[in-house]
Write a structure and sequence with these properties.
This protein is mostly helical. It has one domain. Helix content is 87%, strand content 0%. It contains six helices and no strands. The longest helix is centred in the middle third of the chain and has 46 residues.
């Protein structure tokens, strides 16, 4: 039996659906929006700290806010590249270990490291395509979660 939604539950369900739709539409572009929001919030906190006469905190927050807005994409690109390289190295080591002990483990144990290798390579050569797909999957999950909340399940 479906439970009745209160106002907060209805708002949460609608917010999940809207956020899911935005993730599906903007995909990796949502990162830019999120980075900008984080940067603006940090700058606003810095301004608030100036009013509170916490000058050291204010300067740190304002500098971090500006850095997130200006350098966020560069930092993200570097992080995705490092993650991709790490996954390739990790999966290559795992494949080597499994092949070395192939009689004990069998071919099915190669599935996970091969998938990890493919994801690592995609992060290196086509990171934004992979990030787009991740955001679409997250968006669909959010939409389904919001609809399920509306239906009271």
């Amino acid at each position: 039996m479906a439970k009745k939604l209160n106002n907060q539950g209805l708002i949460n369900a609608i917010a999940l659906i809207v956020l899911g739709i935005l993730f599906c539409i903007f995909r990796a572009g949502m990162i830019n929006v999120l980075l900008t929001i984080v940067g603006v919030v940090l700058i606003a906190l810095g301004i608030y700290d100036i009013v509170q006469k916490k000058y050291v905190n204010a300067v740190i927050e304002i500098i971090l806010g500006i850095a997130v807005i200006v350098c966020g994409w560069v930092i993200l690109e570097i992080a995705l590249l490092v993650l991709g390289i790490g996954l390739v190295i990790y999966s290559a080591f795992e494949i080597y270990t499994i092949v070395k002990n192939f009689k004990k483990k069998g071919w099915i144990s190669l599935v996970k490291p091969i998938i990890t290798l493919v994801v690592g390579i995609l992060l290196i050569v086509a990171k934004w395509v992979l990030v787009d797909w991740i955001f679409i999957v997250i968006g669909v999950i959010l939409i389904v979660d919001g609809v399920m909340a509306l239906l009271g399940k």
